[in-house]
Amino acid sequence: MENRNYKDRDGGRRPNFHKQPKVDKMEMVFGLRPILEALHAGKTLEKIYLQKGVNHSISQEISELARAAGVPISIVPPEKLDQLTRKNHQGAVAYLSSVTYLPLDEIVASIFEKGKDPLLLVLDRITDVRNFGAIARNAECMGVDAIVIPSRGAAQINADALKTSAGALNLIAVCRENNLKDTLHFLKQSGIRVVACTEKAEEELTDASVDLTGPLAIMMGSEEDGISPEYLKKADVRVKIPMTGQIQSLNVSVASGIVLYETLRQRSKA
C-alpha cells in the first residue's frame, strides 16, 4: 500500500548549493584497488557490492572507509557480481554517484547565516527511483532547500531518478545520513520543527492549527508502510492529507506535492 500522507520563496531563488552535471548512466568501478583508491580520493559512491566470503585486507579497508562516508555496502554471492559486470571484478563492484552528497550541518548553517528559515524534506525509505525523482521535482519547484535520505534503504539516484526529476536533482542539495534518528535530533536541536506526514495523524493539513512556517523539516514515509515508528516519535507535529474518495490512498510523490504546496502557500503569506 502506498503511503497516504505525505518553502520558502521570499520573492527570489534560494541559495544554489550545487549544480550537478547531467549524467546519462551510473559509472561503474570494479576491482578492490580501484574502489579503495576512489574512496581515498573522496569520490562519491552510490553503493558498493562486495563478494561474500572474501576476507582481504583491502576489502576490510573498503568497508571501514565506506561506513565512515555513509556509503551503503551489500555483501553478495559471486553470481550477483557476475551479473553486474563480465570483467574481472575481483569480488568488488561499486557505482559512482550521479550527485555529490552534501553535509547537512553545513547546509543548515548556511541557510541560517543568510537569514532564511530552512525548509528540508526528509525521506524515510523511499525506494522507487521514479517516485524519488518526482519528489525531487516537487521539492525544487516548491522551494525546498535540501532533501535528506538515509544511507540504507533509499532509492539509488540513477539515470531514471535524474530523468524523472526533470533536472531538479541537478539543482537541489541532497544529504545522505547514516542515522536518521540522530539526524532528526540534530534538526530539532538546531531549532527546526519536524512535521511528519502520516495517516496516523489526528490533525489534517488544512486545519487552522497546522503551522508550516518557520524553520521546518517535512518527513515523508516509505511506499510500503509509511514513516518508521521510531521516527514518528521524534516528530513535533503529525499531519494527514484530508481525503473524501473511496481509495483513501495517494502515491507518495503526489502526496509530497500536496504537502509542499500547502507549505509554500503558508510561507508566502507569513
TrEMBL record:
Signal peptide: none annotated. The keyword Transferase applies. It holds the Pfam family SpoU_methylase. GO terms for biological process: methylation; RNA processing. SMART domains: SpoU_sub_bind. Gene3D superfamilies: 3.30.1330.30, 3.40.1280.10. Residues 28-102 form the RNA 2-O ribose methyltransferase substrate binding domain. Transmembrane segments: none annotated. GO terms for molecular function: RNA binding; RNA methyltransferase activity. Residues 1-20 are annotated as: Disordered. InterPro entries: Alpha/beta_knot_MTases (IPR029028), Ribosomal_eL30-like_sf (IPR029064), rRNA_MeTrfase_TrmH (IPR004441), SpoU_MeTrfase (IPR001537), SpoU_subst-bd (IPR013123), tRNA_m1G_MTases_N (IPR029026). Residues 1-13 have a biased composition (Basic and acidic residues). One of its GO terms (cellular component) is cytosol. Keywords: Methyltransferase, Transferase. NCBIfam families: rRNA_methyl_3. This is 23S rRNA (Guanosine(2251)-2'-O)-methyltransferase RlmB.
